[in-house]
């Protein structure tokens, strides 16, 4: 059984006293330090150096994590684990066939405090929702260089990336399917980042949110936007070669944020049809999107960027440009760091 939102609040205080201690400036006990930190740095990702100073990356287990999940599947009203194979419980994922239950047990979340973060200046919290066949360390950190791209963008703030289905062909959103859960996730992220930065959790709870969804991560993004309980904080959405099966939820959310948030969708051949459908649905609701490469991402703007026949496996590093996440985050003027 998944814990209720009230249960999560109690657990955050009772089972992890280091969260409350961090807010009061009290040193965390050694056992809590060992328990909460799965991997911690400062770390520079493997691969080419993106240039500039590096922030600090931590990979920790969350209480408010998208998985494990053992509820129902929205829209189908079927159990999440609906089949077995060779006596192993699993799930029939829409695009990937049978996936064993072991792919849905990872509670870890990547937390990255950006290089040069300044809590006294306007800052944003970027939530990165990964695509299929992804692991936090192997792919997000070392292959796609997500923390390094964040640092190189010059955006003032922090990055949060939950582990969704572990190394699987599945876009299941897990507990992001539950009303209000995205806000619970953000609250825990704020507490942990507040301790890591010494800025306090309140600073991160007040930050505007930028959601970035890659590939199959767009399903979690769609539910987070429409029923996640944090719609008022969303400053923008970046879709990168995203699966848009849940695009109606995206359209419904945008209808409530007409002039308050931006949307940019960059895509290759695999997602071209989905983006054409999204354009039509937005036009039917009175939205006008622009095609091309944006030079600035302002609230109320909608952009569609065809990246050509980019290999989906390389989209996060080699799309219409190298390091596309770095490029797009750098085009958000409100949260640029001051040049030294």
What do you see in this structure?
With 340 residues, this protein is an alpha/beta fold. Helices cover 29% and strands 21% of the residues. The chain contains eleven helices and 15 strands. It has helices spanning 5-14, 17-24, 30-36, 136-141, 146-153, 181-197, 201-205, 218-227, 247-255, 272-284, 324-329, and strands spanning 37-40, 56-61, 72-73, 78-79, 83-85, 88-93, 97-100, 108-113, 124-129, 157-162, 209-214, 234-240, 262-267, 290-291, 302-306. The chain starts with a helix and ends in an 11-residue tail after the last helix.
Q: Based on CA inertia axes, which overall geometry fits?
A: globular
Mean pLDDT: 88
Strand order of the largest sheet: 1-2-8-10-9-11-12-13-15-14
How many DSSP helices?
11
CA(first)-CA(last) distance? 51 Å
Computed over alpha carbons, the radius of gyration is 19 Å
- How many β-strands, per DSSP? 15
Structural class per helix/strand content?
A: alpha/beta
Helix content: 25-40%
Sheet with most strands: 10 strands, mixed
Uncertain stretches of 5 or more adjacent residues:
13-38, 41-48
Topology as a string of helices (H) and strands (E): HHHEEEEEEEEEHHEHHEHEHEHEEH
In percent terms, what proportion of residues is strand?
15-25%
Chain-wise SSE layout:
Elements: H1 5-14, H2 17-24, H3 30-36, E1 37-40, E2 56-61, E3 72-73, E4 78-79, E5 83-85, E6 88-93, E7 97-100, E8 108-113, E9 124-129, H4 136-141, H5 146-153, E10 157-162, H6 181-197, H7 201-205, E11 209-214, H8 218-227, E12 234-240, H9 247-255, E13 262-267, H10 272-284, E14 290-291, E15 302-306, H11 324-329
Parallel strand pairs: 9-10, 9-11, 11-12, 12-13, 13-15, 14-15
Antiparallel strand pairs: 1-2, 2-8, 3-4, 5-6, 6-7, 8-10
């Amino acid at each position: 059984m998944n814990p209720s939102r009230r249960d999560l609040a109690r657990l955050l205080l009772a089972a992890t006293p280091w969260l409350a201690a961090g807010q009061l400036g009290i040193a965390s006990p050694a056992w809590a330090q060992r328990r909460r930190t799965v991997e911690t740095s400062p770390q520079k990702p493997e691969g080419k150096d993106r240039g500039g100073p590096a922030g600090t990356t931590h990979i920790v287990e969350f209480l408010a994590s998208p998985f494990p999940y053992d509820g129902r599947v929205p829209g189908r009203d079927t159990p999440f684990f609906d089949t077995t194979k060779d006596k192993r419980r699993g799930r029939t994922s829409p695009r990937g066939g049978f996936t064993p239950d072991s792919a849905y047990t990872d509670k870890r979340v990547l937390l990255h405090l950006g290089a040069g973060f300044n809590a006294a200046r306007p800052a944003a919290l970027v939530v990165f929702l990964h695509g299929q066949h992804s692991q936090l360390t192997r792919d997000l950190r070392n292959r796609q260089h997500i923390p390094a791209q964040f640092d190189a963008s010059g955006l003032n703030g922090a990055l949060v990336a939950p582990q969704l289905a572990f190394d699987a062909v599945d876009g299941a959103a897990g507990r992001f399917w539950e009303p209000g859960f995205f806000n619970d996730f953000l609250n825990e992220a704020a507490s942990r980042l507040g301790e890591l930065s010494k800025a306090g959790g309140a600073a991160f709870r007040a930050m505007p949110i930028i959601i970035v969804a890659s590939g199959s991560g767009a399903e979690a993004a769609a539910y987070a936007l429409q029923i996640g309980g944090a719609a008022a904080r969303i400053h923008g959405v970046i879709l990168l070669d995203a699966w848009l099966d849940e695009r109606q939820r995206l359209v419904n959310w945008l209808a409530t944020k007409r002039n308050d948030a931006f949307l940019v969708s960059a895509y290759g051949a695999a997602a071209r049809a989905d983006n054409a459908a999204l354009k039509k649905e937005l036009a039917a609701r009175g939205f006008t999107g622009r095609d091309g490469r944006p030079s600035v991402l302002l609230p109320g703007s909608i952009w569609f960027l065809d990246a050509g026949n980019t290999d989906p496996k390389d989209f996060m590093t080699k799309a219409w440009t190298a390091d596309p996440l770095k490029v797009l985050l750098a085009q958000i003027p409100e949260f640029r760091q001051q040049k030294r």
